[in-house]
Fold this protein.
Amino acid sequence: MTAIAIKVSIIIPIINETDNLPKLITHVAKLNPPPYQVILVDGGSTDTSVSDAKLLIDGLVDNMQSAIEWQVVKSTTGRAIQMNTGASQATGDVLLFLHADTQLPNSAITEIVSAMSKSEWGRFDVRLDSVDPILWIVGAMMNGRSRLTGIATGDQAIFVKKSLFEQVDGYPNQPLMEDIELCKRLKRMTKPVCLKNKVSTSARRWQKYGTWRTIFLMWHLRFDYWRGISPEILKKRYYDK
């Protein structure tokens, strides 16, 4: 396995992810080459996420199946707060923010390292893990919009040099649209690298609440955020549906 000179720290916010943790941790452990560090940041789970994560990681280490530096840390609730907490603990050169229900391409670390020669931050294309053709179109539209605007969503696995992340003061402390606001800050500094290789993210929200209903809700929320509606109000609408 070739050593990677640039160290990549993956930061994963979790909350009540007990059922998903085996798949998540196994997936990250099998990346080739592996990341330098993985930090799972629990935002106040009421299930056994923290203890389960530690058991799974201990099993990998005991069986010598992982050369990754693993950490499980606790934080107050809130995705932005959790990701900033993870970033403060990270010792890698590049931070990769990964949602717990998103899977990276196997070559993700190599691609990120290569991307660092072009810019100081970027993201992957995304596809939704569904056979519904409408959701294929949704993924394609997300990728196209991101290329046009230079704005990424958290589902696209945003990565950024730690020094630049600190320079823009990290994620804003807001309950929704924190990924959009971070990208706005980063875009003022430099353009993103838009990697064509795709991450796969869960379509469970679309499937649970209805494809068209969720599409219209997302469009409406983004438009209202653009015209100045506060993230606190948008969060209430997002979760009340």
